[in-house]
């Protein structure tokens, strides 16, 4: 049996414990700036060490400081990795640019490298371990609390505070769907606590789940998928599932309008000196985000209904490569939560024990599936692919997913170390295709 970690999010910690939550607020007032300081420190170094000894003074306990360092190193590490990827992409665009003849260069913008700013932690979040936040059953509580017979809670959080030996105990009540998701699983030791803008505290739990062992890849015909915004999933035989266009895009626009109107109203009231202002946080934004996730889940389920027993070929991608992939729709990127698509696909395949192969995605949307000619000019629009050499014509996402399928057993391409190497290889293949054409028609 294989074990996977899953998360349960959006568990609200009750307002009734306002005194205890105040202790948590006091803690986070120390914790959060410290965490930000370590993020800055690691980013300056260009490297993050999870097990660094504390270097900044703090009133927090050693244990809390360690948690802050660990959390900061995670944030900094992903910033360092993304910066490196962006930089590689910049270099590649520079090579493309310099390949143009001087007169052709005039009409184009030279690529410019902008050093990204260090990550700034906005959402108040504590990624804790059991040294500072422990999950307790009622019978593990101090007797005083047990005697008070606090009622029907699923469990308690014991949280170390700024006051030594004075932990707070927060009762946690799960919603029905949380309990169903958790079923009989054991909760893991790492939990995260989030404070929203309105001051409310929310808990995220994780648990491990056993899944089907992965089946032998040789017995399953492969299917590749291209992931995108216009179409969430496009399979290598041309089926498409889910879209952010139409309804979702419409809702996204409405949501933005609504927030703008609200901000205007606020400004107006403020001018008049009215003290109680309507909130700017958008419940409809959260609703929209939930709706997008549901649409993605729906698309993924449909996909697995059509491909219940096939080996999955996925492109290795993250949101930063996604950004380059679909710049006309940048505005939607945040709302569409693209990362959720590959996550759900991977989870769906793992649950069913279906093998997954990750392949390099570089140039998969620019390469002609027929003759391998690789050029941005092949993409006439976001939707259509039309090869400028051989005229091969297809839906852009379908062309891309068929390229991904071919890459499944492409050892030569898998061995490439950079995007430039991949481009060179693809153009070499195109030359080979061309010379075969020439010998075909002497
Ligand atoms: Zn072609």
Verbal overview:
The chain is α+β, with helices and mostly antiparallel strands and 442 residues long. Helices cover 44% and strands 16% of the residues. It contains 13 helices and 14 strands. The protein has a five-stranded mixed sheet with strand order 10-9-8-11-12, with helices on both faces. Strands 1-7-6-2 form a four-stranded antiparallel sheet. Helix 1 packs across helix 2. Bound molecules: zinc ion (ZN). Zinc ion binds next to loops. The site of zinc ion has 8 residues, from loops.
Report the order of strands and helices. Answer: EHHHEEHEEHEEEEEHHEHHHEEEHHH
Q: Taking all residues together, what is the mean pLDDT? A: 85
Indicate the low-confidence ranges by residue numbers. 323-331
Largest sheet: 5 strands, mixed
Helix content: 40-55%
Number of strands: 14
The computed structural class is: alpha+beta
- Enumerate the distinct ligands: zinc ion
Beta-strand residue percentage: 15-25%
How is the largest sheet built, in terms of strand order?
A: 10-9-8-11-12
Inertia-based shape = globular
Task: Using the CA coordinates, give the radius of gyration.
Answer: 26 Å
Task: Figure out the total of helices.
Answer: 13
Give the distance, in angstroms, between the N- and C-terminal Cα atoms.
59 Å
Quick overview:
The chain has 442 residues and is α+β, with helices and mostly antiparallel strands. The protein is 44% helix and 16% strand. The strands form four sheets. A five-stranded mixed sheet has the order 10-9-8-11-12, sandwiched between helices. It has a four-stranded antiparallel sheet with strand order 1-7-6-2. It has a three-stranded antiparallel sheet with strand order 3-4-5, with helices on one face.
